[in-house]
Amino acid sequence: MGAKIQHDDELVENHEINVTPFIDVMLVLLIIFMVAAPLATVDVNVDLPASTAEAQPKPDSPLYLTIKADNSLALGNDDVTLEKLSAALKVASNGDTGQRIFLRADKSVEYETLMQAMNRLREAGYLKVALVGLEGVTRAGQ
Questions:
Q1: How far apart, in Å, are the Cα atoms of 18 and each of 22, 30, 46?
Q2: Which residues 6+ apart lie within 8 Å of 113 measured at CB?
Q3: Which H or E run contains 119?
Q4: How far apart are CA 80 and CA 71, in angstroms?
Q5: Most-buried pick from 17, 43, 92, 112 (CB within 10 A)?
Q6: Local confidence pLDDT in tens for the 142 residues of the chain
Q7: How many CB atoms lie within 10 A of CB 122?
């Protein structure tokens, strides 16, 4: 409690609150929140550029899995069904599930068909999958 000194030497209680420290603390907190709030946002609109990364060297005997426009599969140059893909992969890779599989798909292939092929590769134990695209080609306007 604060006290005022009067001329007649009696101490009287002061009922006024000193709000200056409270205002100082509130201003500091306001500045902290004003700086931190924009940093916490996740919704950022970004127009990502096309990749210009250098092409990686290809292995001596790459193993290509191709999804054709009619959704049929080809392992190397041989046609294969989705059900027989696991067995054909084991033969083509000599049982090496650590070998990288290069997955190519036609532009018209639906995403679901691509995911079915990737799920079948994962079920067969082939976790190293590289998606193949045209190198250095970008669409106009991007």
A1: 8, 20, 49
A2: 67, 71, 105
A3: helix 111-123
A4: 11
A5: 92
A6: 555 555 556 777 777 888 888 999 999 999 998 888 776 654 444 444 555 666 667 677 788 898 888 888 988 888 899 899 999 999 998 888 889 998 888 888 898 998 999 999 999 999 999 887 766 555 544 4
A7: 11
Q: Which helix (H) or strand (E) holds 101?
A: strand 101-105
**Which of the 8 DSSP states describes residue 44?**
-
pTM above 0.90, yes or no: no
3-state secondary structure of 137: coil
Side chain identity at residue 84, one-letter code: K
| CA-based torsion, 118, 123, 127, 128: positive or negative | negative
- Give how far Cα 82 sits from Cα of 1, 20, 36, 111, 141, Å: 84, 75, 51, 15, 37
Could you identify the residue written with the tokens 């669409």? 139
